[in-house]
Amino acid sequence: MAFLRLYLLAVLNLASGLIQDSKNPLNDFCRRWGHQTAQVDGKLYIDGGLVAWNPLSTNPLNYTNTWLLYSDLNSSTQDTGMPYQYANLTKNSTVPSVSGGILWADEINKCFYLYGGEFQDRPTEFSFWTYDAILNQWNETDYTTNVDSIQRASYGAGTQIPELGFGFYYGGWLNNQTSPSWSGPPVATNNLIMYDFSAGTLNNNTGPDNVGRAEGSMVYLPASDGGLLAYFGGIEDQHGNGSSVGANMSTIHIFDISSSKWYTQGAQGDVPAARRQFCAGATWADDYSSYNIYLYGGFGVDNATGFDDAYILSMPSFTWIRAWPIGDTAAEFPHGGCSANVIQRDQMLIIGGWFTTSDQCDSPNSWGQHNMNLGYNGAARSLWDKYNPEISAYFVPSPVISVVGGGPTGGATATEPSKWDNPDLAVYFTRVPTFSTRAATRTIPTPTSSLTNPKDSDKNVGAIAGGIVGGLVSLIAIPCLILFCLHHRKKAIKEEEKISSTTPPVELPTTASVHEIASPGNSHIHIRSWSSNNSTSPFPPDPYQSTTSANGSYSPYNTGYPNPAPYQPQSAYPSYTEGSLAYGYQFMSHNPNLYPLPAQSHQHEFSYPSPTSHFDGTSLPYPQTNLNSIHTCPLYPDRTSTPEAPKLENYPLSAHPTPTQYYSQPAISSNTRHSSDNCRSLNRKGRSVRGRFVDANSE
């Protein structure tokens, strides 16, 4: 019987893998959730998470997303009003494909760093990865740490501070899907992980107290001397054994970066119900008189319900404001597990999510993208609107002005709560940080450099071919032109000798000007799901097609929106069941964190957040020590994940050496050392690779 079960499991895994490999992440998209995103150089990268394929009636399983995709933030489609999306980037099987992690975006160095997350299959040992957006290449990254070992956590809350080059990740679950050595119940950690982009240090710091937290949100606010972090929502594991209660949404945790101190401040107003795995982003008035955090959706603490609403938390008045729906309008599409990214301070792209009451696809023509216009200054003059890449100014919207005073550009009069829980906070919110310009620690190509854009593989290949042909033609044409001129000049001289001295000189014939050879293959082919008025897609147009002003209570998640519904109903879906994981990863009989997901994951059924621990209920998962550990790891050459992926062999190498912090550093000390005997690998051109970027000295 045991052999039969293993055999059936192997067959199921093989079948799931074959189905996954046959799918196109854009053309077959139905919905995604639990992914992580990063905004770098005008692109919004989407990594990991889970996906469901269209149609659900014949694709009832949930799969791990193994692709790295991106949305072009400098474009928007005319039909759906959302950015174009592409799936032609590299990601090989050595790079973790996880859910509930974070991508720390480093805009200065044109890369992002992958930390945390949990696997749907067997988890691997902790590893830290960098994606180089210039070279379209993943590298396993060396780091130093202040503890014996860093562990992977999932569904914590994180953000980054571009001006300082810091990334943060607070809380999250430690379980048998984050660590291969985990046993016992899940544990929500209370630690704050901080990564220094320049120094390469990945350190563990203490949280506000000893309570473990997960599935909340953290945002950065440019206040105080060095910035503030604000955390709220999610669940609290008060006993360190996986039991959870909903965090009070009126309790806001504040971390002052300059002093490394934690504070707690109470909020008032229209306080949202407790929730987990919602998405949120922050923006602020031009004069910094109000900082406004926009929240959308989330799962209920009971794991069976969800939310389809939006709130604004305005600081420093610490007032919650209900932004949508307005009045008694019913919310029809509750969901959580989404992502939110604020673009140019005025728009927030919300991507994906798992729907608790719906079995319909999530706006497949726009790949699950929905846009909030945070200043209500788009074409619709409402919260939900088409994405417009030209908008770059934030105006405080009327719902916030009616509560905190002032006007669209600032001037808030409500600048403090009814009571400060700590007088330090009153001082912090009167200050605005100033940062020195942060320089790149690598050579960044200029827009006129010869680096090609990996945005479109067909365009990339065509440009390379055109360049080669053009170069060959030029090499042939120039000598021919010189010989042509010399020949005609010699001929003219001979003819001139035959002419009598009384005959006026004859002007030499002019030669034709050199014409630039057109490079073939310059057509722009988008690797994406194309929509048009003649589209044969079974799905109706997305709700952003109309530029007509809409009532504020409408949203792309509501069928009452005055446009065709974004969700195409499906019929006769097979029933979904819950079950244990394969490979012997069994959940505890009491799992308070199991979500009612309606299908299996990549190779087996999936549940959030899927816990267990080798620590007892009272021990902290991250030991605080003074040890400095150096971690060096082998790197792997990238392989393209799809046939359309661009070939990058012709990228020129930087003429400047990459800074030493991107290399493996020998640890000449008695401290704990984590190293590999072989930490140098070759990229496609045979160059050595270390750390985050290509080693420029190894040509």
Automatic annotation (TrEMBL):
Annotated spans, Disordered: 525-552, 665-699
Transmembrane portions of the chain: 461-486
The entry's keywords: Iron, Membrane, Repeat, Signal, Transmembrane, Transmembrane helix
GO biological process, any: glucosinolate metabolic process
Polar residues composition-biased segments: 665-681
Gene3D superfamilies given in the database record: Kelch-type beta propeller (2.120.10.80)
Signal peptide: 1-17
Domain of life: Eukaryota
SUPFAM superfamilies: Galactose oxidase, central domain, Kelch motif
Presence of the UniProt keyword ATP-binding in the record: no
Name recorded for this polypeptide: Cell wall anchored protein
Organism for this UniProt entry: Lojkania enalia
